[in-house]
Design the sequence.
């Protein structure tokens, strides 16, 4: 009985998409290893249930000495349909439920573009670290070779230290002041008695281009004064803060607590 339930899960998809497939597995999963030896050995480490829970009943396939037409091949389904197959079991995890609305889902990137259900570089990943993402996101990956870039090797798993690949909607961190960045830079996120308003509204990437930039401290502008004057024009800063006076200097020479302060409303000290 234990084997029947998962078999029905994947065959549901097939019933919709193509010809009906008998829902009863008549062979033992261990029989598959006779011919798919290498794959079965890697598969053992995954903790995934038997082969037929995803490939459907294998008896006809085996009777024909391994006819690929007689077995479910998830890679021939649409990304959506094959991912739905995965979600019949993984829906229980709240996060993967969100995957149905996720940016990758909507862009027709399926679970198996990133995961290999039989085992891979890191148990079930197609690749490790940033390499998993870089192939599809070459523009972003290139920013990491700019003169300055956010260190990734030091911070753990690469892109996923900031992005959740399963998340729904906009999975950018940092649109608002930021739990993601605060995991590591908690002294910058506050809360502060005197917060820099812009940070509360638009988050860290108002001033930082975190993937990589030419500016020091990954600032979006190469010259800090230009960054500050892009919002604090003449007449907003006190008269003695003239552009001429500070050109080439750093405003943060005095406004040291630029991210926020508990003692100074002008961010003059921590
Ligand atoms: C969790 C679902 C799942 C389970 C369990 C599973 N597979 Fe697969 N299998 C897939 C998916 C998805 C693909 C297509 C993507 C890929 O190539 O990784 C696939 C592809 C294949 C392929 C063709 C591509 C290749 O990698 O050679 C073979 C053969 C195969 N599976 C055999 C097996 C055998 C044998 C078992 C049990 C030892 C098994 N599968 C268990 C989901 C699964
Ligand atoms: C008698 C040997 C044999 C047995 C037993 C066997 N297969 Fe196969 N299988 C083959 C051959 C041969 C192919 C076609 C060549 C290839 O793709 O490896 C194949 C192909 C497949 C494919 C499609 C591969 C592709 O290219 O997409 C899947 C999936 C698959 N087998 C799964 C299974 C599962 C699951 C079982 C156990 C229920 C099983 N096989 C048992 C011999 C066998
Ligand atoms: C029949 C149920 C079932 C199906 C279908 C299924 N899985 Fe799984 N999956 C499991 C179980 C059980 C585990 C191991 C227990 C665990 O770690 O949650 C697991 C573990 C995983 C893990 C590793 C979890 C970890 O914490 O390391 C990944 C990744 C994964 N599955 C991806 C997939 C993908 C991709 C598919 C579709 C191709 C898929 N699964 C289809 C039941 C399933
Ligand atoms: C864009 C790439 C990508 C896609 C698409 C993707 N995943 Fe993942 N998945 C990952 C990465 C990377 C991790 C490891 C996360 C980490 O280390 O924090 C992961 C982890 C997991 C895990 C184990 C950890 C956990 O969160 O429970 C499961 C299970 C899983 N994914 C299932 C799925 C399923 C099911 C789908 C399709 C609905 C899917 N994934 C789609 C990249 C992806
Ligand atoms: C198979 C290709 C593929 C892989 C692998 C992939 N992505 Fe994507 N990703 C896309 C597509 C397509 C989109 C849709 C928007 C676009 O074209 O940028 C997208 C969108 C995104 C977005 C939102 C972009 C925006 O403009 O709102 C982020 C963030 C993202 N991916 C991060 C990741 C991360 C992190 C990984 C690795 C864990 C990853 N992606 C792996 C194809 C991929
Ligand atoms: C230090 C945290 C961090 C790391 C590490 C990171 N990102 Fe991002 N990413 C962000 C932030 C913040 C944004 C939002 C930028 C904005 O709003 O202007 C973003 C935006 C994106 C976008 C959408 C906008 C764009 O620039 O195209 C994609 C796609 C993306 N990241 C992919 C990746 C990939 C792929 C990697 C790994 C090679 C990665 N990110 C590593 C923080 C990070
Ligand atoms: C209003 C613009 C602005 C915003 C918004 C902003 N920063 Fe900064 N950040 C700066 C400036 C300017 C510097 C350079 C300070 C200096 O010259 O010493 C800096 C420096 C840094 C540094 C490196 C210097 C250090 O003290 O360690 C980190 C890390 C940092 N910011 C993280 C963040 C995080 C995380 C956020 C979001 C919570 C954020 N920043 C939001 C302007 C900003
Ligand atoms: C997993 C931990 C981690 C996360 C998450 C993280 N960072 Fe970092 N970040 C680091 C480390 C480590 C460094 C290098 C050491 C340093 O300068 O603080 C760094 C460096 C920086 C720098 C450059 C500092 C300099 O002086 O040049 C900025 C700016 C920055 N991070 C902003 C961000 C922002 C914004 C986010 C959220 C989108 C973020 N970081 C998320 C760990 C992290
Ligand atoms: C994206 C726009 C933006 C950028 C860039 C920016 N700020 Fe601000 N800043 C604001 C806003 C909005 C406020 C709160 C409104 C106000 O009081 O004027 C503020 C408040 C301040 C205050 C406190 C003013 C007061 O009256 O309480 C100081 C000081 C300040 N910013 C300095 C800087 C410096 C120095 C930089 C460059 C490192 C900078 N800001 C960059 C938008 C910005
Ligand atoms: C020599 C130290 C010093 C430097 C450098 C400096 N400031 Fe200030 N700033 C102050 C002091 C002190 C105040 C408190 C108000 C006052 O004295 O008028 C202040 C106040 C401000 C205010 C709040 C004005 C108000 O009345 O609400 C803004 C905005 C500001 N500075 C922006 C900047 C910008 C942008 C730069 C770089 C172009 C900069 N500051 C460079 C010392 C400095």
Sequence:
């Amino acid at each position: 009985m234990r084997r029947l339930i998962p078999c029905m899960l994947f065959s549901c998809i097939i019933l919709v998409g193509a010809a009906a497939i008998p829902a009863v597995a008549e062979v033992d999963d261990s029989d598959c290893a006779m011919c798919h030896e290498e794959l079965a050995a890697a598969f053992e480490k995954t903790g995934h249930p038997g082969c037929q829970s995803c490939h459907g009943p294998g008896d006809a396939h085996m009777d024909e000495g391994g006819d690929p037409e007689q077995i479910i091949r998830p890679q021939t389904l649409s990304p959506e349909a094959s991912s739905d197959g995965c979600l019949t079991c993984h829906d229980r995890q709240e996060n993967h439920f969100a995957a149905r609305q996720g940016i990758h889902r909507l862009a027709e990137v399926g679970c198996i573009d990133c995961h290999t259900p039989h085992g891979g570089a890191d148990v079930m990943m197609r690749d490790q670290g940033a390499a998993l993402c870089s192939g599809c996101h070459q523009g972003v990956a290139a920013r990491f070779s700019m003169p300055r870039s956010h260190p990734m090797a030091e911070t753990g798993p690469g892109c996923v230290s900031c992005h959740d690949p399963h998340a729904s909607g906009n999975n950018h961190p940092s649109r608002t002041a930021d739990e993601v960045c605060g995991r590591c830079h908690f002294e910058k996120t506050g809360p502060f008695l005197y917060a820099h308003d812009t940070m509360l509204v638009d988050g860290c990437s108002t001033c930082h281009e975190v993937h990589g930039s030419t500016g020091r401290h990954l600032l979006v502008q190469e010259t800090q004064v230009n960054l500050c004057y892009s919002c604090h024009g003449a007449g907003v800063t006190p008269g003695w803060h003239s552009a001429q006076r500070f050109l080439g200097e750093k405003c943060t020479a005095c406004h040291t607590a630029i991210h926020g302060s508990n003692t100074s409303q002008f961010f003059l000290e921590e």
